Amino acid sequence: MPESAAGLVLAAGSGSRFGMPKALARTADGTPWISVACEALRLGGCASVVVSLGELAECALHLVPPEAEPLVVRDHATGLSASLRAGLQALSATSADVAVVTLVDLPGQEPEAVRRVLGTSAGTAALRRATFDGRVGHPVVIGRDHWSPLVEHLAGDVGARSYLAAQGASGVDCTDLGGGHDVDVAS
């Protein structure tokens, strides 16, 4: 496992289908989803974690655990690409070799999924993503060599999916771990 992995939690969206920004959501026992995501990344092997916030960021800042760094994405309304772009740019100022990207709305994600996708030798050229029953998901490992090209590729409300496919990102089966389905509707 790389010693220089940094986590990135994407939590800047408005959560229109959910009814509120998912950065404000909590598990049934009251644990903020932001904390759950940060813990999965930290326990999974990330030395540091950045949480991108946008919609109602001022209300979500206190939910970011003290060991993580909040990043307010001012242009979050332009789409998912703004959150990912800002996060990768923030990580560029660190010594991390790889970014492990996940979504805030995966409260069932396990640290083992992060460990599995990181693998034993990610390196700066790494591109790996979790798969669940053959469907691509998160976490996603993006080596530093890809950060700038990916940032240039990002636009609108589209994430890294087409870039990862074009670059031949490896799929890592995490079906047995569960937690790969995002929550789009409040229960």
Sum up the structure in keywords.
187 residues, alpha/beta, Spore Coat Polysaccharide Biosynthesis Protein SpsA, Chain A, globular
Description:
This protein has helices at 33-44, 57-60, 80-92, 111-118, 147-153, 161-166; strands at residues 5-11, 48-53, 69-72, 98-103, 127-132, 135-143, 170-173. The mean pLDDT is 90. Strands 3-2-1-4-6-5-7 form a seven-stranded mixed β-sheet, sandwiched between helices. The chain has six helices and seven strands. The protein has a single domain, classed as Spore Coat Polysaccharide Biosynthesis Protein SpsA, Chain A (Alpha-Beta Complex). α1 packs across α4 (111-118). The radius of gyration is 15 Å and the shape is globular. The chain is an alpha/beta fold and 187 residues long.
Radius of gyration computed on alpha carbons = 15 Å
Overall, the morphology is globular
Low-confidence stretches: none
Looking at CATH, which topology would you report?
Spore Coat Polysaccharide Biosynthesis Protein SpsA, Chain A
Per CATH, the architecture is Alpha-Beta Complex
Share of helix, binned: 25-40%
What order do the helices and strands come in, and which of them pair?
Blueprint (H helix, E strand, L loop, with lengths): L4 E7 L21 H12 L3 E6 L3 H4 L8 E4 L7 H13 L5 E6 L7 H8 L8 E6 L2 E9 L3 H7 L7 H6 L3 E4 L14
Parallel strand pairs: 1-2, 1-4, 2-3, 5-7
Antiparallel strand pairs: 4-6, 5-6
Helix pairs in contact: 1-4, 3-5
